[in-house]
Amino acid sequence: MSELNIRNWVYINDQEAVMNDEQQFSFKKEDTADQKLEQLYRSLGVAYPKFFKMDAQSKLGWASAEYLCEGGKVFATNAPEERALVLSNQKSSLDTDEQYQQSLNNQEEFLPSPSVFVYTLANIVAGEICIRHGIKGENNFLISERFDAEALVNYTRILFEEELCKQCLLGWVEAYRGRFKSILWLVEKGESTDDRLFTVKNLNQLYQKSEL
Amino acid sequence: MSELIANLKQQIVQQLNLVDIDPASIDENAPLFGEGLGLDSIDALELILLMQKNYQIKVATAEEGQKVFSSVKAMADFIVANKKA
Fold it and tell me: What is the pTM of this model?
């Protein structure tokens, strides 16, 4: 099998959005997570009303993928079934789970929201990205105590070795109690420079860059 | 009736997070689902909540829901017909 290389990578944290080492957007420190994510959406110049119905984690993943996939251009040569997705985080969908639990606890006005309920699963963010970019191949969501580059690399390599995909979007997406952090990579076969090789070392180095 | 329709438009935009839609631009006779606002099945559940929360009216069956939520005008008619004295 030829080498796997990182075609694009992007991170978004509470301060900025960066793609391939170039800053795409910076946030004002005083703004809330909701405000920051809406600003990010506006900056992308895309009309996607569904964005406003998503929870914070899905908004974050959706916006990260929007950068990473260059508005879908990166998938021009492969079929939807050849595109895979592997996401991870520590807290699953706990942010939205807690919000939903609060609405269940409100005995005076017991009207829990269906639109909040549908986001009480970690892999909903994966679904939002798949819908947006027509990803119909393998997808998985891994929960781990901390960012685990080795697990992501191993899992993704198997997908390529088993010829289950030709491109894979992978990484970490987490929003919790007003803070958020994502880092995504788009990996495919091809020639590469050392710093773009799909290795545990390179993923860890890029992850370090995204840390505040 | 016109005040009720204006209020309903506001409430729909708020309840369904239709952030970039001006309530006044919603045609009260246009279908809410399939075309027009392009609402989905989760939005339908949110509209049932809206009726319960703001007007204390329950939509009992799916068949009734199809009629009640066919347009803003149909919602307003249903509220007028079912509001408690």
Answer: 0.93
